[in-house]
Design goal:
By secondary structure, the protein is α/β, with parallel strands linked by helices. It has 15 helices and 13 strands. An eleven-stranded mixed beta sheet has the order 1-3-2-4-6-5-10-11-9-7-8, sandwiched between helices. It is globular and about 65 Å long.
Length: 490
């Protein structure tokens, strides 16, 4: 048996029933990563010895957790005790945290096994994972193309069967966009649904940790374990967490689906537009009620995001000064040390966003930029809330185009446009889920984004499960379907 081909839920059930050893699974994954990752480069750090030791410990337990034997990768901006956490930056190249993020604690408490830390755009600032200070990650579907970003290493690891699931972070689309580019499932939860404790901050009012998986069922199970109140995160909501993976086949009542009007679909790649049209036809075939929506504020979502996020980054990244931890470049004067450390430690995209944010917050410009963007943010959130008074879910393309070639987007503005469909949900704090919905003629995956109201993840997963089963996406790279089984075993 080739264990990396097993779906997460299937593998966990076999381990919990005693039919499969977690150590055998981990050994198989180590062998697969060693033979595959030289080309993909999804990982910055692997933890093979630790993973094997943990697997043997799990095999010896009588009562096994809900994720027993699940092999999980973690984005390298989520802290892990005793394991290097770099944020893809030279300034934290040798930083080893003394504690675990809450999400890591919760996964390991249910017997998940951490296999390594994945590559990312530096400090989660990017849409291609080309901004990593160490090396770019490649898309498993076509190694000449990007896996998306900033959680590109996590998405590539799951798509290349180097992990059953991975943790990413999503500030403006950084889970959903790479999920779409790599043909997998990715969730940005409701803001406050999952603890941010232990996530290295980029933009604190937007950041969320989310899972990347091969199926909706696996995503629901991982989210059930991760989610819930955490007193260490003051923005975390004290709302009970249901088992999202239970009763997925239950149809969530009479469903009204909102689709974007033509004005919101300008500039789409032709095959993305064609895919979105096919989804509309499928919805009609399922007998769902379709409502066409227009969002006048959608056009300002992207510039609004690229004022608010860099402004918060400017504040959050001020802590990397060479004094307390991380890189230090020695200099005679304190101010010189600050300048030399930050110049050497930060890459060009991080510097660009710090400068943008500092300018937007500066005296004389604060009202013209940050305050105005905050007003626009409230208008966007209001439009989405009003839309959910009319519909249950809103469907959009996840990205305006399929995965592009490495080095293709040299213009920062062209890169920022990758977030066109995803930033609205981030600004409003609502959940967004990307599922694979087909392939281009070149064999590249396309993603469909599903949006729903705050804290409605239970209904969101049920609806996504319904769509997934009707789309029947196949991973042509490995000949398996999105359940982790071979095509002839459906």
């Amino acid at each position: 048996m080739n264990y990396p081909e097993l779906g997460l839920r299937e593998a966990v059930d076999l381990v919990r029933q005693g039919q499969l050893k977690a150590a055998e699974i981990v050994e198989s994954y180590i062998s697969h990563i060693e033979s595959t990752d030289g080309k993909i480069r999804a990982f910055l750090t692997t933890t093979f010895d630790r993973a094997l030791a943990r697997a043997r410990e799990i095999d010896g337990k009588k009562e096994k957790g809900r994720l027993a034997g699940a092999v999980v990768a973690v984005k390298d901006n989520i802290v892990t005790r005793g394991i290097r956490t770099t944020c893809g930056s030279r300034i934290l190249e040798n930083f080893v945290p003394p504690y675990d993020a809450t999400v890591v604690e919760r996964l390991e408490a249910e017997d998940a096994i951490i296999i390594g830390k994945t590559n990312l755009d530096e400090f989660a600032m990017g849409s291609s994972t080309e901004n990593s200070a160490f090396f770019p990650t490649r898309n498993p579907w076509d190694p000449e193309r990007v896996p998306g970003g900033s959680s590109g290493g996590s998405a590539a690891a799951v798509a290349a069967l180097e992990a059953m699931a991975a943790l990413g972070s999503d500030t403006g689309g950084s889970v959903r966009q790479p999920a779409a580019f790599c043909g997998i499932v990715g969730l940005k939860p409701t803001y406050g649904r999952v603890s941010r404790y232990g996530l290295v901050a980029f933009a604190s009012s937007l950041d969320q940790i989310g899972p990347l998986t091969r199926s909706v069922e696996d995503c629901a199970l991982i989210t059930s374990v991760m989610a819930g109140f955490d007193a260490r995160d003051s923005t975390c909501a004290e709302i009970p967490v249901p088992d999202y993976s239970a009763d997925l086949r239950e149809i969530p009542g009479r469903i009204k689906v909102g689709l974007l009007g033509e004005t919101s679909l300008k500039g789409l790649h032709p095959e993305v537009a064609a895919s979105y049209l096919r989804i509309q036809e499928m919805l009609a075939g399922l007998g769902l009620e379709i409502v066409h929506l227009d969002f006048p504020s959608w056009e300002v979502a992207l510039p609004c995001y690229y004022i608010i996020a860099p402004s918060e980054a400017s504040s959050n990244l001020a802590r990397y000064d060479g004094v307390r931890y991380g890189l230090r470049i020695e200099a005679g004067e304190l101010a010189d040390m600050y300048v030399k450390t930050r110049t050497a430690g930060f890459g060009s995209e991080v510097k660009r966003r710090i400068l943008l944010g500092t300018f937007a917050l500066s005296s004389g410009y604060y009202d013209a930029y940050y305050v105005k963007a905050s007003r626009a943010r409230r208008a966007i959130a209001g439009e989405l809330k009003a839309a959910f008074d009319r519909v249950d879910f809103i469907l959009t393309p996840t990205t305006p185009e399929p995965a592009f070639r490495l080095g293709e987007k040299q213009d920062p503005l062209a890169m920022y446009l990758q977030d066109y469909f995803t930033v609205g949900a981030s600004l409003a704090g609502i959940p967004g889920l990307s599922i694979p919905c087909g392939l281009t003629t070149d064999g590249l995956p396309l993603g469909l984004q599903i949006l729903s109201p705050h804290f409605s993840e239970a209904r969101l997963f049920k609806f996504a499960f319904l769509l997934e089963n009707n789309i029947k996406f196949k991973n042509n790279m490995y000949g398996i379907n999105n359940r982790g089984r071979r095509k002839n075993e459906n």
